[in-house]
Structures are given as C-alpha cells and as structure tokens.
Specification:
Layout (H helix, E strand, L loop, with lengths): L6 H18 L7 E2 L2 E2 L1 H13 L18 H11 L26 H12 L5 E4 L15 E5 L2 E11 L7 E7 L10 E7 L5 E6 L9 E11 L3 E2 L5 H6 L2 H29 L1 E2 L2 E2 L4 H30 L4 H26 L10 H10 L7 H14 L2
Parallel strand pairs: 3-6
Antiparallel strand pairs: 1-2, 4-5, 5-9, 6-7, 7-10, 8-9, 11-12
Helix pairs in contact: 1-3, 3-6, 3-7, 6-7, 6-8, 6-9, 7-8, 8-9, 8-10
Amino acid sequence: MDLELPEDLRMLKKTVADFVDRELIPIERTSMDGPNMKPEIRAQLEKKARDIGLWHLEVPVEYGGQGLSLLGMVVVWEEMARTIAMPPRGPFVFGPDLRPILFTLSDAQKDKYLYPVLRGEKVTAFAQSEPDAGSDPGSMRTTAVRKGDKYIINGYKRWITNAGSADFFQLVAATDRAKGSRGGLSMFLVDAKAPGITLTGRIETMMGDAPYEIAFDNVEVPAENLIGKEGDGMKAAQSWITSGRLYQACRGLGVAKRCLDMAATYAKQRVTFGSPLADRQAVQFTLADSYMEHHMTQLMVYQLAARTDAGTAARHESYMAKIAGTELGFRVADRCMQIHGGMGLANEMPIAKMWRDARSFMITEGPVELMRWVLARDILRNY
C-alpha cells in the first residue's frame, strides 16, 4: 500500500497551503462581519483563487469543474482548516457551496437549480435537522403529503446554515412517518420564497455563527421538485455522508496542524524562570503527543479517502475518522491554549476561536458518542 500522496496532490497541497499562508492568515482579524465573510473580501479572494486554478475543485468535469477526487478534497480541506479567516462550515472561496446530491437531479431540475448555483446566481441550504430529530432523522416530524400534482409540507427545521441567504432548500421531510428513516423520508427542492415559509429566528452559537430556525406552514411544492423517488430521502442524504465525515475530520487535522505550529514556536520563544518553555519536559511531551496523534489521524483520513475513491471503504471507517479527527482538533487546540497561558485566551490570537470551532465539530453531523455506538455495533456484529 502506497501511503504517499501522488505528485499532483502534493503540488495541490502546497498551492493551497501557500494560499492560506499568503492570503488568509494575515487577514484573520478583519475578514469576517459577524458569522459571514465580508463580501468585498470574499470577492477579492475568489478572483485570486480563480487566477491560480483553485476553482470548482470538486465539481465534476462534465459540469465545468476539475473533478477532484475525495483524496484531493481532503488535502484541500485540511489546509483550509488552518485559518479562521472564513466561516468554519463554509463556504470557502473556491466556488459555490453545494452538495453532491445536486448532480443527481433531473435535467429540468438541473436547469432550474444546479446550473444557477454553479454560475453563482443562486445559493442553496440543506434543511434536515429538527428540534427532536438531529442525530435521529427517523423521528422527523416535518411531513410532505402528496395532493395531486403537489406536496404539502408542514413542520419545523432548526440549525439550518445559510438559510437567510438561500434561494432554495434541499429539504428532507417524512412522506411516511411509520417507516421512519427506512423508506419514510423524501427530499425536495423548495423555493425559499414559497408562501408559508418563515424564518422564525437565529440561534447565536459560541462559534460566532447563527444558523436559522424555519417554519413550514402548508407550503406547496410541485411534485416535480421531488429528488429521486419517494422514500429515497435518507438514501440521498447518506450518499455524501462519508465525504461529510471526512470534511469534519479534516477540520480537526487542520486545526491541530496550525495549533501545533503555534505551540512549538511559542514554547521556544517564551522564557520563564530563566529558560524557554520548550526546555520543560511537560511541554515537550505535550508537543510530542500532539505530533504523533496528528500523524496517525492523517494516515487514517488519507487512507479512508483513497479507499472511498477506489470503492473499497467499509462503513465503519468513516465513523473512526470522524471520531479521531474531531477529537484531535479539540485536544490539540486545548493543549495549544494551555501552553500559551493567558495569551491563549486572547481574541487577538486564533487559538480561542479554533478551540470553540473544534469543540462544535464533535457534536455536529453526528456526535462522537453516536459514532462510537454505531462503530461498536458493527464490531460486535462481526465478532
């Protein structure tokens, strides 16, 4: 097994790393306006990204993109996670933020929804989570009832990122609640300005973002806006789940890498009681542990991406990557904060923001406890 990145991905990794170091890290304290990147800064960065070929990286070639492999995207995500200059959950500055499900739409649906997103004319948001159906989508209470050539949608969604700027939602709703997630959920394209849709509030989080709560009151959606077949909603949502878990793991890798750099540099510079912190065994062991854990997790994540590209990955591998990567990010950020002492708490440093963001990834898109439970179930089934 070759655990080295191929030459083209090593070059891509360096290009993205240089972009982060040159364009993003220097503007970390000025790039954001609340939970969003300032529009003028985003526009400047997107132009620079286009100019050096970092555009539409994961968009399939047939849609005008570069068709980058999942391993290639892992390389990109890891490097981009080293900076807090952008929203932690995207979008980045390498093209519109979209999910692979949009590439499976019918031709008519693509004309109305996919291509405008690719051209930057429309923004989409994914709406699945509910107050009582986060990690347990089978408990979803938002319903879609077929009436003639329409579906009538009623329900409530929570934690919906980008809902305020979205032109349409990729909405998951129950078409047969008795079946739960096993054939009872369906996915729809829902225009954000459709009558009956209300953004009822925003939830301020410790990470600085503010996802939305959305109410759906007798919202009429054309039957032609059903994605795939009725009952395939969970299958559609799960189609990109390995990619999503790898993204979360890469956030941890990037945070750990940046925090390790900062911690080692500061430990050599900071002198207490007549000698640098780097001379203290407690600090040395902390740095050594962080370095080893990053290396081990990186190997796991890269291998999973390569095996997924080859179609040979097992389901439980994504659970392990999600657990290992997200816990790594928080653990190393916490150590970095401790080594910096009082300066680690200062907002002029990126550590506190990375610490908060890293903590959140242990909860979102599948808490680590759930991942461990499902992993244990798979282990016990096979022994």
